[in-house]
Amino acid sequence: MKHIRKLLKSPKDGSPSRGSPSRPETPWPNNSVRGSTSRAGSPVAVSALVSSPLVPVPSSPHIEPAQTKPTGTSKNNWKNLDAFLEALKRSSAFSPLVSAIEDLSWFIRTYESVSTTRTEYDALRIKLEGLFTNLRVHFVSNTPPAITSSITNLCEAIQIELREVYGTKDRNVISRYLQAEQDLDKIVGCYRRIEDHLERVMMNASLNTWRIVDGQASDAKLDRLKPSMSACYDSAQANVVQRRQCAAKTREKVISDLEAWKNKREGEKVYWVNGMAGTGKTTIATTLCSTLDERYELGASFFCTRSLPECRDVKLILPTIAYQLARFSQPFRGALLQVLERDTDVHTKLPQVQLRRMILEPLQSVARSLPNNMVVVIDALDECEDGNEVGQILQVLLENASAIPIKFLVSSRPEYHIRQKIREAKLESKLVLHDLDEKMVEADIATYLRAELAELSVPVTEEQISTLVQRAGALFIYAATAIRYIRGGDLLDRLDSILKASSTGQGTSNQTKEIDLLYEIVLKSAFNEGLEEGERNRMQLVLHTVVCAQEPLTVCALAGLLNLTSARVNAALKPLWSILRVSNSDVEDRVSTLHASFPDYMLNSSRSGNFACDANAHNATLAKLCFERIERHIPQFNICNLPSSYLFDTEVLVLMKMSRGMCL
């Protein structure tokens, strides 16, 4: 024990290591490598890990182990570990890896100081020392590897493995635990898994040396994929479509189930979250993405939405995912660039070709460099335009899922063309949101309502909360729309109008009757009897135009198309803010429907009654207005002032900026 106390009081550098238990009474911290701002085995053993790799694995030059200082033990069996750690400390860019290796070093030395059963452990030590030698080669080279999200994930995984064994025990408790040699198999198993993580770091470092030196040239090749950056879960457009995470203390069981699927080594690679409109699919997917991103486990995300053209084009899904994976993993980036070198137009091919060439083959070639818990999220697949192509992508993904070394989470409504592909694949990993335990869903909705109404300082009884919860059923959108409606006027009066409303139940199904009733309340309030006929007609014209439009329109565009002033358009929109989305951008205000369930309601006359929008009739009206607009203006030659008519659109760098500046 004296030896242990001496070891604990005298760390190698004279001070506690960051991220390790630092002293008695100090708990083992929930260490995180997130603080780093960087994003981005022997050679023979490494090459054997990849089956026919797209990216060749280089051999490591010979390097002598560095001379290191004594570590406080009579015999230093970890000279290569010490040398690797010293090399890492020379650059702040390697801080995530420094933290993980420091933690590992401390526990290794503590274990060695008290352990007597060493046969299997010594064999493991020799293998690890070989890995540390080769890792040092790459990290002291002229082109050290970038600390990408993939490497950071692996660093975090090392620390998690250590915490799995030692929990939150302080150093004295850990030493006694090791001295008793309890759960020796558990400790050795932990180190074997850490060896696997280090081999993956080694693969990232090895394949890094093959990256194209000209970063701009490689970026240009990736840009040719034309990814939809708006489709990322945290893009600037997320604010435009008002995407949000789950309210605090809600959907915890759902997120926990998804985490369990993600962490399960053996199991299905695709998980389907489905539910009718308004059950919270996108909110759950956003929350999961944020959690995964915080842990460097999110490989890519694509959030489909009818509101944005670049987010409803099914042809952009696979190129965008490939692009994001290339940002996540340097080895994958190198493999994908080789594919693009051979076939620059691969992103224009059939879905099955795209998936195989741009995602499946590159992933397989660098599989041993990737984290085990990497996930790609595709949300609201049903909101893409071409249902046939959606079915093709899903079919190809499901057919090849077992060969893909990462996991995919897909969410959608249970549309027939999607449901059929899931059934054919006999997929068992799925979650039906509208079939969840009623009490659990009701509790989540009640939690959300209490928090939102408290923020508005609305005095509300538990009986009133219970009434709202019963009317919401499984639809979170009911609760969200109710809050938006209450917030838009006299709080108590609007709450009272929702509570006192009753539905006739005519022309509506049990699943939609409550949300239909809520939309009816909002529309009756907006189109109240105090409106002049002209105001009523303008509001209806603006509302039906937004419902029928294929993409969000600016206030300027609505005014120009409908022969109204911007002031009158804004006046017509104001009473409709509970059901329409108006993005308050510094550049422009874009208008769209708040949720996909509202156009469904408006375009179905049996549900919306007198408020219904006749799509055929209104589209004819819009076509007529467009022709009238054209007749009033003489087309201007070269309206964009382009330098040449021979340029492709992709070669006009300011084309997007020009189009944004136009009302129509």
Automatic annotation (TrEMBL):
Q: Return the Pfam families for the record.
A: NPHP3_N
Question: What residue stretches are annotated with the NACHT domain?
Answer: 269-414
Provide the residue span(s) of the region labelled Disordered: 1-44
PROSITE patterns per UniProt: NACHT (PS50837)
Q: Which UniProt keywords apply?
A: Repeat
Q: Where is the composition biased (Low complexity)?
A: 13-23
- Parts forming coiled coils: none
Regions of biased composition (Polar residues) lie at 28-40
Recorded superkingdom? Eukaryota
Q: What is this protein called?
A: WD repeat-containing protein
Species of the source: Rhizoctonia solani
